[in-house]
Amino acid sequence: MPLWDGHEYAEVSALQRTLAGQALAGLSLRGDEQVLDIGCGDGLVSLELAARVPRGSVVGIDASPRMIETATARPVPAGASARFLVGDARDLPFADEFDLVVSFNALHWVPEQRRALESLAHALRPGGRAVVQMVCASERSSVEGIEMEVARRPEWATDFVGFEAPYVHPAPDEYAALAEAAGLAVTGRRTWEVEWDFGSRWDFLRWCTVGSTDWTRRLEPDRAARFMADVVAAYEAVAGRPGLFRFSQMRVELSRDGARG
């Protein structure tokens, strides 16, 4: 998963917060669950979850130490329990520990999707459930797909020799088989289209740059800025106009051992 900066992410993550808030609103909780948030980012969503399980607790885990630094600096809501750890979604340090695992727009940054789902299943208690929301495959090119296309252009190709895509956008129809191979059952699935207007090319460029460290860390700062400008210009042909972001979302509800939550 990308090693993003927590403070920069907090400044530009209105889209991610909106999507996570919608996902949280659809969660049915008793209030005593042990919850794991994979790809917790700057911790804000994890702490909102913690407030909803006052008799339980939340663990947020993220691959980026800078994200976890930001998360641990946030105050925990009164009466809630939450802690944050640096960790890899493919190798979670938990076994049979959680009633609920959530991941909101983070796991598509793990190309080894089956390995991540196997690790998720291992972290769940028997009968536990998971809610995973991510960008999925569609007929439209994604921002990440455009970044890979730009990286192959002659101007940039030498900077990206041997570079492999740091993401995956799973096909919704294929996800059940992937989950089942990891020891999970799909108990619900929904896909929908999202449009988000950043308001300007500059604001969209800023958002894209924060989430593109896998690409830009291979470049000197001035070249990184030019690369991202090329990406945003190319993406405008996909979105239709400057500042507009369009993508497909998939929400999958899972359970361990086929038990339905």
Describe this structure as you would to a colleague.
With 261 residues, this protein is an alpha/beta fold. The protein has a domain at 6-137 and 167-196 and 246-256: Rossmann fold, CATH 3.40.50. 38% of the residues lie in helices and 24% in strands. It has eleven helices and seven strands. The chain has helices at 6-12, 14-25, 44-52, 65-72, 113-123, 143-151, 154-157, 175-181, 201-210, 213-216, 221-239; strands at residues 34-38, 57-62, 82-86, 98-104, 124-135, 184-197, 244-256. Strands 3-2-1-4-5-7-6 form a seven-stranded mixed β-sheet, sandwiched between helices. Strand 2 (57-62), helix 4 and strand 3 form a beta-alpha-beta unit. Helix 6 (143-151) crosses helix 11 and helix 9 packs across helix 11. The longest helix has 19 residues, at 221-239. The chain starts with 5 loop residues before the first helix and ends in a 5-residue tail after the last strand. The model is unreliable at 4-12 (pLDDT under 50).
Share of residues in helices: 25-40%
What form results from the Cα inertia axes?
Answer: globular
Rg, rounded, reads 18 Å
Q: Write the CATH fold name of the domain at 6-137 and 167-196 and 246-256.
A: Rossmann fold
What topology, given as strand order, has the largest sheet? 3-2-1-4-5-7-6
Determine the CATH superfamily of the domain at 6-137 and 167-196 and 246-256: Vaccinia Virus protein VP39
CATH architecture of the domain at 6-137 and 167-196 and 246-256: 3-Layer(aba) Sandwich
Protein topology:
Blueprint: H1 6-12, H2 14-25, E1 34-38, H3 44-52, E2 57-62, H4 65-72, E3 82-86, E4 98-104, H5 113-123, E5 124-135, H6 143-151, H7 154-157, H8 175-181, E6 184-197, H9 201-210, H10 213-216, H11 221-239, E7 244-256
Helix pairs in contact: 6-11, 9-11
